[in-house]
From TrEMBL:
Belongs to the pyrimidine 5'-nucleotidase family. Monomer. GO terms for cellular component: cytoplasm. Its main location: cytoplasm. Coiled coil: none annotated. This is 5'-nucleotidase. It is found in: Cytoplasm. It catalyses: N(7)-methyl-GMP + H2O = N(7)-methylguanosine + phosphate; CMP + H2O = cytidine + phosphate; a ribonucleoside 5'-phosphate + H2O = a ribonucleoside + phosphate. GO terms for molecular function: 5'-nucleotidase activity; magnesium ion binding; nucleotide binding. The keyword Cytoplasm applies. The keyword Metal-binding applies. Keywords: Cytoplasm, Hydrolase, Magnesium, Metal-binding, Nucleotide metabolism, Nucleotide-binding. PANTHER family: 5'-NUCLEOTIDASE (PTHR13045), 7-METHYLGUANOSINE PHOSPHATE-SPECIFIC 5'-NUCLEOTIDASE (PTHR13045:SF15).
Amino acid sequence: MGFRVPELRNASVRIQHPERAAAIIRSLKEQGPSKLQVISDFDMTLSRFWCHGRRCPTSHNILSDSRVISEDGRKQLKDLLHYYYPIEIDPNRTPEEKQPLMVEWWSRVHELLVQQNIHKEDIAQIVRESGVMLRDGFKEWFDQLHEHNVPLFIFSAGVGDVLEEIIRQANVFHANINVVSNYMDFDENGVLRCFKGPLIHTYNKNNSVLQGTEYFQQLSTRTSIILLGDSMGDLTMADGVPNVENILKIGFLNDKVEERMGKYLDAYDIVLERDETLDVANGILRYILTET
Ligand code: TMP
Ligand code: MG
């Protein structure tokens, strides 16, 4: 497969069953772009984990670290991150064990954010000042999908208003994109008053929150899937797709690499170790979309 998709030889690529991964990629090509859809996580999957030697912010942390949050609020939000993030990525706890703790984390963060004076009009500026970056190669990724009419479903436990703004500012918010995420609800003065339900956290990214959206039903002929994620919770994002024939799961392993590699290799067809680019995904897509 390496000569057809040269990026699969990149130093970051880890694959437990290369033959199996190659067979899936070949099937995706055989089925062609009219059968394909992409389901992707946002934070730390389409956005970068590291940039300029520092951690990049998630969509929540863009808000938490911003100047519109009081100093005390910022400290409380940071404390929550330091307490709950190690739990989120702990390879020794099951998703079932993590679920209630994630609900607790998200609920406490949303509660704190609502207590701040966050204005709808401030979001664009907050994003601009945040230092967030999409992964290298993002333009080719978003543009290729759009040009070939491949639907891109972004399923995010982050903040929808913030991630949409990031994609908009990068000039790649094309018509083929659909987002399901946690969206803010503003009062008549444009001030944040609550988050719209249902709450999406890292470990309920599945049918339980997609019911009623009908998105996948409309796409029932798109039986080939490329799934991109960075968390073990992202693996269930395609569960609502009715007739999956081929699914290629690509996982970014950003943090605690040694401890988590085994589980990632078992779960993802392709694991990208500390890879801040979309090069491998772009290479696979180019191969699938090229008519030869
Ligand atoms: P997602 O990448 O699965 O969509 O989830 C969002 C990420 O945001 C998840 O990895 C946890 C992280 N997060 C923060 O960084 N700060 C927060 O306050 C919260 C609630 C989540
Ligand atoms: Mg993520």
